[in-house]
Design a protein that fits this description.
With 459 residues, the chain is α/β, with parallel strands linked by helices. The chain is built from ten helices and 18 strands. It has an eight-stranded parallel beta barrel, surrounded by five helices. Helix 6 crosses helix 7 and helix 8 runs parallel beside helix 9. The radius of gyration is 21 Å and the shape is globular.
Length: 459
């Protein structure tokens, strides 16, 4: 998902297949269940992996993914400004090992180039973030190409040939050994190159074979590392238009059964896992519809999380999540920043209240003045690096509602319920106005005058 581009710029995107929030009695009941589960959830994995109790080591929290442009390059003053904000927030930071700002790590067999990846990992270390590495993508020689790198989208999104699965696993092991302080690894990205056109479904057998080899090699090099997959896109469509419809559905639509099949096959045949990771959007694959509206559609994240927890017994990560449909150029610039932040805050509420252990915001940093949805102003600008509204939301949410938070009920009168979303723990209360106009609402015994799409923290 996101925007594809040229050299090192390709961003994952759905392509060809492509409170708790307490507003009703049913939501209250769900919140009670969520609170109980978050407080004492335990699972036993016979295949190996961390149990979701005790150390809760997979509970990484709310962070972001570096993309082509980030705070490791640009104007010195701007980079220092961004680094200061990151140091204060101490967020988990995810980076791919090839693409998304990083050069080919092994352009020829046994010949390594970690210059870019070293620089990105150094940024995470310097800003006191928790480093996460996504083990994607594969050098050209592992997928039918020669030495050097073809940075086209078509080439970057190819999976390694089966004959080179062990070579890619070896590369993953080299990476794990090079960065011993990195303890979290995601295997591959969105099943790229693993779609079987002849069978019109995912090649989950091939992915799982690759995953198991990578899992074993990373654990061999760093026994303390946590490894997860399968990072499949949880596509959904409106019920009336859905093909390959599954039983996982809601007002927001119905999930494609092929995505669930991929998760279930991986879960049955994996050598081990410390978390399950997926990504997806709240809007439909066909037509980019937000059902019944952009705020209510975010319940998809909670519903999918609940299904993943039950199906795998593993802590759940969202490698990416999206709430704003893209235009024909794959840009998300149609909403005001206030509107965008309000919907994103509601999505975070759904993720947190459903017990998610980790989630990564896809940071779409650009080089120019305008950057809708970015976390900070471009460090290419002399006065850049300053934090933007999405940074403030994620950093405060991270500190206020980390994984394992015990949420409490929020009193919202029936008359105000359609207009606000709320999440609370202890004295901390987050309230979102879902209307594009100012309102007066009663929340938790308080009378609040909220501006259009206002996100307000109390306590």
């Amino acid at each position: 998902m996101g925007r594809h581009g040229g050299i090192r710029a390709a961003l994952p995107r759905q392509r060809w297949w492509r409170v708790a929030v307490l507003l009703t009695a049913a939501a209250v009941a769900l919140a009670v269940l969520v609170t109980v589960r978050v407080g004492g959830w335990r699972w036993d994995d016979p295949k190996g992996g961390s149990q979701h109790s005790g150390s809760r080591s997979a509970d990484i929290g709310w962070g972001f993914t570096h993309t082509q442009y980030s705070a490791d390059l640009g104007n010195d003053t701007a980079r220092k400004t961004a680094a200061a904000a990151l140091s204060d927030a101490r967020l988990p930071q995810n980076q791919h090992i090839m693409g998304w700002g990083v050069d080919n790590p092994e352009p020829r067999p046994g010949s390594y180039n970690f210059t870019d990846l070293d620089r990105r990992v150094a940024l995470v270390r310097a800003t006191h973030g928790t480093p996460v590495l996504t083990l994607c993508c594969a050098p050209d020689w592992m997928k039918g190409g020669g030495p050097g790198t073809d940075w086209s989208q078509k080439s970057l999104e190819k999976a390694p040939d089966r004959a080179h699965y062990k070579d890619f696993a070896h590369l993953a092991g080299v990476v794990a050994k090079r960065y011993p302080d990195v303890r979290h690894f995601i295997v591959w990205n969105e099943f790229k190159g693993f779609y079987d056109d002849s069978r019109k479904r995912w090649d989950y057998e091939g992915y799982t074979e690759l995953y198991n080899l990578v899992y074993a090699e990373v654990k061999k090099q760093n026994s303390k590392a946590l490894v997860g997959g399968p990072y499949v896109v949880m596509d959904s469509d409106a019920p009336a238009t859905a093909s390959n419809a599954s039983s996982l559905s809601g007002p927001w639509g119905v999930v494609d059964q092929r995505a669930l099949d991929a998760v279930e096959y991986w879960n049955r045949h994996r050598a081990g896992a410390d978390f399950v990771v997926v990504d997806g959007s709240s809007y439909t694959r066909e037509g980019s519809r937000l059902l019944p509206d952009e705020f209510s559609a975010t319940t998809k994240f909670a519903d999918v999380t609940a299904w993943l927890s039950k199906a795998t017994g593993l802590p759940v990560w969202w490698a990416e999540w999206y709430v704003e449909p893209a235009d024909a150029q794959d840009d998300r610039k149609g909403w005001t920043e206030q509107h965008r932040v309000a919907v994103q805050a509601t999505a975070l509420m759904q993720l947190a209240s459903s017990g998610v252990a980790g989630a990564f915001y896809w940071n779409p940093e650009e080089q120019g003045e305008s950057c809708p949805g970015c976390l900070w102003r471009s460090t290419e600008l002399a006065d850049g690096g300053g934090r933007l509204p999405m940074f403030d939301l994620i950093s405060r949410f991270s500190k206020s509602f980390p994984p394992g938070t015990h949420f409490r009920a929020v009193d919202v009168p029936e008359a105000d319920a359609p207009n606000v979303r709320a999440l609370a723990s202890g004295s901390t209360l987050l309230v979102v106005n879902t209307q594009d106009r100012g309102i007066t609402a009663h929340v938790d015994g308080r009378t609040l005058d909220l501006g259009a799409y206002e996100v307000r923290w109390l306590g």
